[in-house]
Amino acid sequence: MARELTKEKLLELYRLLVLAREYELLLSDVSKQGKLPGWIHSALGQEAAGVAAGACLERDDYLVPAHRTRPSQIAKGMDLKLLTAEIYGKVTGLSKGRGGEMHICDPGCRILGSGGIVGQVVPIALGIAYAIKYRGGKEVVLCDFGEGATNTGVFHESMNMAALWRLPLIFFCENNQYAEFTRVDHHISVKDVATRASAYGIPGTIVDGNHVTATYQAVAEAMDRARAGDGPTFIEAVTYRWSGHFEGDPAKYRSPEEVEEWKKRDAIPRFRDELVHKGILNDDLVREIEASVKRQIEEAVRFAEQSPLPTMAQTLTDVYA
Fold first, then answer.
1. Rounded-to-integer distance, Cα 148 and Cα 187, Å
2. Half-sphere exposure of 30 (CA within 13 A, CB side)
3. Distance from CA of residue 45 to its chain's centroid?
4. Tens digit of pLDDT for each residue in 166-188?
5. Cβ-contact 70, 20 below 8 angstroms
6. What is the Cα gyration radius of the chain?
7. 199: confidence class by pLDDT, cuts 50, 70, 90
8. String of DSSP letters for 211-257
9. Where are the domains of the chain?
10. Residue 267 has pLDDT above 90, yes or no
């Protein structure tokens, strides 16, 4: 059953979408300026999928994100100041500056598990979902990953266990067409990644990942199913990353024409036009939202830039081997 989207919720989705886009543009810019200590894996172009998924989750639900999933983390409620400080490598960051952009963790927001190993978030999400069912909880876990992760053995093991035990887990695959430098039809044997769900007897849904409300409704339906005790769902959100695998990647493995074709499907003008047509959004409100987003990002950057780097003593705490 479709979830009712109020005017307030639609405006919040639009604001989050603009925030995610402007934040990715900011990170791309400061990375090119050499202001960051590590790499940036940009989510430019695929923000709508993550925003829809993260915004659909309730406060007590869990998000287990792979890298390149900042939009879902921001939409779930992650503090932009603390996230930015972490990416800048500052001691005020979410992991005291030691995790960087690929190892984001925010237990208070119930965002856990992000890391640099392809597919490693999936068994973490499985474990959390098992714990929820074991103690009789009603929370849902959404695992946000790319299509490349579905080629790993641990992904299939986790799908099998989640289906067998009917765990409250949503496998949310952002299919952005490339796993690092390899096009999807060069590394996956099926046309639609979602068909892999049929091997485990669970629903496999394909949705336009550049359509915010369609993706939101697909996640909402999967959440209702999980909370009712009916087990996991696999969602393939079809989208595209405009940038290379990392900032600085020349992306010669694809044509400029391909990128431009996908840019025509940009979620922001599409969603804006939809809301304008419904009488929910107008030019003044668009400018107000854009100004608010700009202030929020500027405050986050200022906080990060003014925060100290960790000392050697701080760097060597909480490290386990």
1. 8
2. 19
3. 12
4. 999 999 999 999 999 999 999 99
5. yes
6. 19
7. very high
8. -HHHHHHHHHHHHHHHHTT---EEEEEE---SS-SSTT---TTS-HH
9. 7-315
10. yes
Mean pLDDT calculated for residue range 81-103: 93
Q: Per-residue pLDDT averaged across 153-158, rounded? A: 97
**b/e string for 279-308 if b means 16 or more Cβ within 10 A?**
eebeeeeeeebeeebeebbeebbebbeebe
Q: Which residues contact 54 (CB under 8 A, 6 or more apart)?
A: 16, 63, 71, 72, 73, 74, 75, 76, 144
Question: Which single residue is written with the structure tokens 């952009």?
Answer: 101
Which pLDDT belongs to residue 277? 97
| Tokens coding 121 | 């978030």
CATH code assigned to 7-315: 3.40.50.970
Q: Residue 311's pLDDT is what?
A: 86
Q: Please identify which residue in the block is written with the tokens 């959004």.
A: 281
Closest C-alpha among 294, 298, 307, 248 to residue 86: 307
Q: Is the pLDDT of residue 237 over 90?
A: yes
**pLDDT at residue 281 tops 70:** yes
Please give the pLDDT value at position 2.
Answer: 77
**Rounded Cα–Cα distance for residues 152 and 144 (Å):** 15
> What is the CA 130 to chain-centroid distance, rounded?
22
Query: How far from the centroid of its chain's Cα atoms is residue 257's Cα?
Result: 26
AA letter at 315? T
Q: Which two tokens stand for residue 41?
A: 């894996």
Whole-Å CA distances, 202 to 89, 127, 170, 257: 41, 18, 11, 37
pTM passes above 0.90: yes
DSSP states along 119-143: TTHHHHHHHHHHHHHHTT----EEE
